[in-house]
Design the sequence.
């Protein structure tokens, strides 16, 4: 953008941007109320976890045959949702899409929340969590599980860095803002590592961001591809597929974009950011959602049509169960309400407005969760050897209340992380917004 | 609720108890009732039976005479009680073998001889019990027979001799059905049909053609008496060089994706740490860049001062 504003105009506009974007920061009453509510709910769920620790995994519905239940489905869902950070900051960012700057940080925060808690979700599936360390002591270097642990941890680390780097100029600015409490300003100053906004500092920062944005692409692809290999590297019907990697990755983009839209809608409304997260952003992200959903639909068709065409005997049992048997309602519900209808609706411009997209995204997200459930659970109900002489609850998986509460706890934790991060940091980058509005050296003006 | 409905529900419930409750008679077929153990119970059998009881029965029937059985319906009886002691060996054998309702079928879990062992243990607790004449008495004084096997490479086969004891002298056991097996990875491979010993107590089996053996061509050949009910578990195992020498490295000998971590394929062993290092290295470089930002900012403020 050309610099055709006078200094006065620039100053005024910068003042508005800063005060708009800083206003939501800080610990206020509604923050306390909301966090208090989350904490209470979390305590309830933690009691359920205590019961599981005391009595063992038998309190969950998982048994000998279906030994991966809601926890693992939820884990896959969390890893999937965290991929949105990479899609927005890296893929779109590197391709030069300028419009993403107000939503990049939101997507990064969502990514951190889900990726950080994904590890905990796995731990909740362990009857003896204190033995987690054995994964590292006795882990086999050729096991996808070890790769998964490595890559999830790395992804959290890189996402944290990618959140932090673009924050540095904002932190410097915030540390000078008199409206904020002193301790917070002190913390900002520490974190802003002497940021002065000089040309050379900007140059280094841009370089660092670029390197990280490139690095996160293979890591993010790896995180979800490896997660898919946890399934695809076994010979089980429904998992034994060569396209599981890309199938999972595109599914992840759908789920993550859904969450991003929900978060955009929420922050725009509650943080009064209508001037920054505009209808244009919703329109664009809506189109992206259509694109990734179409790709995912394509993978879905491929994933079911090819084995369905051949109907190998074991495969046939599984497919019939999904499409016309026990899981049919869920299966078609997920495909229609979680994928096909959203695609069709979002093709209309009228639907690519904040409220309709918010509602559609809720469907997408719920559909995505159950989609993971359908990937994980039904396969295990059809082992290759016949099921004999076992109690009924071994044959069909029935999640328990305790399991549900523990799963809920993971969502509460994500909400807490997102809440805290969005309360102590500006949810929209101030300096980038300023730059885009034609204010070239915000540091000098403020 | 209407009175009629109430009564019919009560009626239904009582019919149910009559039909499926614990008081129904557990009838044992006539020919099974009089069945006797093949041999006289020995202290050894009772010891073995005690282990079997602890492993397979105690969880439901509890300790003998303690009445601490599992609360099932029908209640599993204390096996030392009169109700059990007055039954014949044949009846107990039939019930343990075939099970009913919550009482498991042990036909496939325990061998015939093992079931007799656990009965011998249960009988220890029955004061007035006197063991009836064993079914093998008729054959060889109630003692088991023994098998031996010779490999005859010239005749390409195995000669198996069954001997029984009669008045402390070994005599050929005629008319004993013998089966021959070769041990494989999973279980036993049966060789030919089973055969009956002749007057000399001998049977001859042709050696199996082209069976892969170990490195030296050795096979584990096992001769077994078929009628374990009558003679107990009698077997004879011999290693003979009757197979084709095969040297197949075990599946876990070489480096492979399914092997232990120590024997991971080279490419994983190299690629995994290298990739991790590359990523960590890049992150390290970013930290260096951050330090550069820090230093240049410091320089700037030093210049201003």
Sequence:
């Amino acid at each position: 953008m050309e610099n055709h504003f006078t200094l006065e105009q620039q100053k005024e506009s910068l003042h508005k941007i800063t005060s708009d974007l800083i206003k939501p920061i800080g610990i206020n009453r509604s923050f306390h109320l909301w966090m208090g509510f989350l904490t209470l709910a979390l305590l309830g769920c933690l009691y359920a976890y205590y019961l599981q620790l005391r009595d063992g995994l038998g309190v969950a519905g998982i048994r000998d045959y279906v030994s991966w239940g809601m926890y693992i489905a939820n884990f896959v869902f969390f890893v999937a949702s965290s991929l949105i950070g990479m899609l927005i900051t890296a893929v779109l960012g590197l391709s030069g899409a300028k419009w993403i700057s107000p939503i990049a940080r939101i997507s990064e925060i969502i990514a951190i929340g889900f990726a950080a808690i994904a590890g905990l979700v796995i731990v909740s599936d362990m009857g003896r969590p204190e033995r987690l360390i054995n994964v590292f002591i006795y882990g086999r270097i050729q096991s996808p599980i070890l790769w998964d642990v490595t890559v999830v941890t790395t992804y959290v680390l890189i996402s944290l860095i990618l959140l932090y780097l673009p924050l540095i100029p904002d932190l410097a600015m915030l540390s000078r803002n008199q409206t904020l409490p002193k301790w917070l300003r002190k913390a900002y100053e520490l974190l802003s590592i002497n940021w002065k906004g000089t040309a050379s500092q900007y140059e280094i920062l841009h370089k660092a961001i670029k390197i990280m944005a490139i690095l996160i692409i293979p890591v993010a692809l790896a995180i979800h591809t490896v997660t898919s290999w946890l399934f695809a590297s076994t010979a089980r019907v429904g998992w034994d597929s060569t396209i599981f990697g890309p199938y999972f990755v595109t599914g992840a983009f759908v789920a993550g974009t859904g969450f991003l839209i929900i978060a955009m809608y929420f922050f725009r409304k509650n943080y009064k950011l209508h001037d920054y997260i505009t209808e244009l952003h919703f329109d664009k992200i809506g189109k992206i959602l259509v694109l990734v959903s179409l790709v995912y639909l394509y993978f879905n068709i491929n994933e079911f049509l090819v084995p369905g065409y051949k109907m190998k005997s074991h495969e046939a049992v599984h497919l019939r169960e999904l499409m016309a048997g026990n899981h049919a309602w869920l299966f078609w519900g997920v495909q229609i309400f979680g994928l096909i209808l959203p695609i069709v609706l979002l093709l209309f411009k009228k639907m690519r407005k904040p409220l309709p997209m918010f509602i559609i995204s809720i469907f997408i997200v719920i559909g995505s969760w159950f989609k993971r459930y359908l990937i994980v659970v039904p396969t295990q109900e059809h082992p290759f050897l016949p099921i004999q002489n076992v109690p009924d609850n071994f044959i069909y998986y029935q999640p328990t209340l305790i399991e549900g509460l523990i799963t809920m706890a993971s969502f509460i934790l994500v909400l807490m992380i997102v809440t805290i991060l969005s309360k102590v940091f500006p949810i929209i980058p101030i300096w980038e917004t300023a730059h885009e509005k034609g204010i070239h050296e915000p540091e000098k003006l403020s | 609720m209407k009175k009629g409905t109430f009564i019919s529900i009560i009626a239904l419930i009582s019919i149910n108890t009559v039909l499926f409750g614990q008081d129904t008679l557990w009838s044992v077929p006539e020919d099974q009732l009089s069945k006797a153990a093949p041999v006289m119970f020995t202290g050894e059998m009772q010891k073995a039976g005690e282990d079997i009881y602890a492993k397979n029965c105690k969880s439901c029937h509890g300790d003998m005479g303690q009445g601490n059985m599992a609360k099932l319906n029908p209640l599993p009886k204390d096996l030392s009680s009169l109700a059990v002691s007055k039954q014949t060996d044949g009846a107990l054998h039939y019930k343990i073998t075939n099970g009913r309702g919550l009482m498991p079928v042990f036909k496939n879990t325990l061998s015939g001889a093992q079931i007799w062992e656990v009965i011998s243990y249960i009988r220890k607790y029955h004061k007035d019990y006197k063991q009836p004449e064993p079914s093998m008495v008729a054959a060889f004084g109630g003692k088991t027979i023994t098998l031996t096997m010779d490999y005859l490479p010239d005749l390409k086969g195995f000669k198996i001799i069954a001997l029984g004891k009669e008045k402390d002298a070994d005599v050929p056991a005629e008319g004993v059905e013998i089966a021959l097996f070769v041990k494989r990875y999973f279980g036993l491979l049966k060789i030919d049909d089973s055969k009956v010993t002749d007057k000399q107590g001998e049977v001859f089996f042709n050696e199996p053609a082209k069976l892969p053996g170990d490195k030296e061509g050795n096979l584990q050949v096992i001769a077994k008496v078929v009628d374990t009910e009558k003679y107990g578990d009698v077997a004879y195992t011999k290693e003979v060089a009757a197979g084709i020498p095969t040297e197949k490295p075990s599946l876990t000998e070489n480096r492979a994706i399914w092997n232990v971590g120590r024997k991971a394929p080279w490419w994983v062993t190299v690629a995994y740490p290298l990739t991790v290092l590359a990523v960590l290295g890049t992150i390290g470089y970013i930290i260096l860049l951050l330090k550069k930002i820090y230093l240049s900012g410091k320089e700037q403020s030093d210049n201003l001062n």
